[in-house]
Amino acid sequence: MPGGINIPRRAKQLHQKLLEQPDKADVNDWLCAYAMAVNEEDADGCMVVTAPTNGAAGVIPAVLFYFTTHMGGTEAQVREFLLTASAVALLST
User: Fold this and answer.
1) Contacts of 43 (CB under 8 A, 6+ apart)
2) At what angle do helices 27-43 and 59-70 cross, to 10 degrees?
3) Is 34 exposed, middle or buried (0-12, 13-18, 19+ CB in 10 A)?
4) pLDDT tens digit string along 43-63?
5) So where are the chain's domains?
6) What value, to the nearest 5°, has the Cα angle with vertex 81 and ends 80 and 87?
7) Residue 89 half-sphere exposure, CB side, CA atoms within 13 Å?
């Protein structure tokens, strides 16, 4: 990634390990890999939609990606999730 400390990307290797041994992975393993990928893309200056901070370290995009990819979440359910998350955010301000 850019910058002077030469931090390597880790999400791709973690994702590959999860694909090779899915029986040893749990929900948190997948969510960590997805959230890490969001953060790495953001840190590398790639296009990432932030609203405003990717839901505290990429958690919201990771949860939505897991939900749609692994659990068959629908567009209507994603919309309801985002509306609910927005309402909670408004309550906490």
Assistant:
1) 1, 2
2) 130
3) buried
4) 776 666 555 554 556 888 899
5) 11-91
6) 90
7) 13
